[in-house]
Design brief:
The protein has helices spanning about 5-15, 20-30, 35-55, 55-60, 65-85, 90-95, 95-105, 115-135, 145-165, 170-195, 205-235, 240-245, 245-260, 265-285. The chain has a domain at about 5-115 and about 140-195 and about 210-250. The protein is an all-alpha fold and about 300 residues long. Helix 5 (about 65-85) crosses helix 10 and helix 10 (about 170-195) crosses helix 11. This is EamA domain-containing protein.
């Protein structure tokens, strides 16, 4: 049986493998953020027929739901750009989202957060830092522009996921279409202000090999996986969702060790286990009802 919990855990694992086709596209084309623009265009094209079929859902949706969903897409565009222009710190800085989500829940929604949820956040963050320490990266601090993009994307996602949880009643297809449009607009803006990473001297640009990867990313990661993820985001509190998303860091570290020859030692193993434990704790913790249910539509 497919549940919101299982989707929220498995989709980030899939996104932990995102670097593989994304790196291939960059190696083939050197397109920088424009690569993300092309990928999101594919997602928009794939989702457009379903969005048109359920267009009454879009027409009847309130503006806060649409804005929150679009901002979610913008946050993912920032994250994708952070992977290109920053260090691995960009990934972890993005996944400070549970911290921001707790602050939003306490200060904006006036929600209480259980001790179990706090413990899961601490355990998950310790796990992430151990993964980085084992990779000789150390404690992540914003140093490059990509790191700031990762940090900003994480804060934006915390705001967006809170708005989606409170306001959105969009069907999953329309929701992901709006999400992808938000990502497209943000990626275009980023691509216009940031130069594409320069390729090595003599490296030829081959869009012929890059296009299949762009299509695979646009369909598999953005159109299919994110449709399921946004369905789960409507049902799960932002703090719990942010803890589940930490599994992406562990998946990325394991896949990098297996396919890119990057180190994966005892510290990284312990960190991975802690991230998984944090996710299980978040899944087992009781849901926190909204303090102001009149915010929901």
């Amino acid at each position: 049986m497919i549940t919101a919990h299982s989707v929220a855990l498995l989709v980030p694992v899939m996104w932990g493998l995102y670097w593989i086709p994304a790196r291939y596209v960059e190696a083939s084309t050197g397109a920088g953020v424009w690569g993300t623009v092309y990928v999101v265009i594919v997602a928009c094209v794939v989702l457009a027929p379903a969005a048109w079929r359920y267009r009454t859902s879009l027409y009847s949706s309130n503006r806060y739901a649409l804005i929150s969903t679009g901002l979610g897409g913008a946050s993912f565009a920032l994250y994708a750009a952070g992977l290109l222009y920053g260090s691995v710190a960009a990934v972890v800085l993005y996944y400070l989202t549970p911290v921001w989500s707790v602050l939003i829940a306490r200060l904006w929604l006036k929600q209480e957060t259980s001790l179990t949820r706090y413990a899961a956040i601490v355990i998950g963050m310790v796990g992430i830092f151990l993964v980085l320490k084992g990779n000789n990266t150390g404690i992540p601090l914003p140093q490059e522009v990509g790191d700031w993009l990762g940090l900003g994307g994480g804060i934006l996602w915390s705001i967006a996921s809170t708005g989606i949880y409170i306001h959105s009643r969009l069907d999953s297809y329309s929701s992901n279409f709006v999400f992808s449009v938000g990502a497209f607009l943000s990626a275009v803006l980023l691509a216009c202000v940031m130069a594409a990473p320069s390729l090595e001297t003599g490296h030829s640009i081959d869009y012929g090999t890059g296009i299949p990867a762009i299509i695979i990313i646009g369909v598999g990661w953005w159109a299919v996986a994110l449709t399921g993820f946004l369905w789960a985001a409507r049902l799960l509190e932002p703090t719990r969702l942010g803890i589940f998303m930490m599994t992406e860091v562990a998946a990325g570290a394991v896949s990098a060790a297996l396919f890119a020859g990057e180190p994966y030692g005892v510290l990284m193993l312990v960190g991975t286990v802690l991230v998984i434990v944090a996710g299980l704790m978040a899944a087992a913790s009781p849901s926190t009802p909204l303090a102001a249910d009149n915010c929901r539509y």
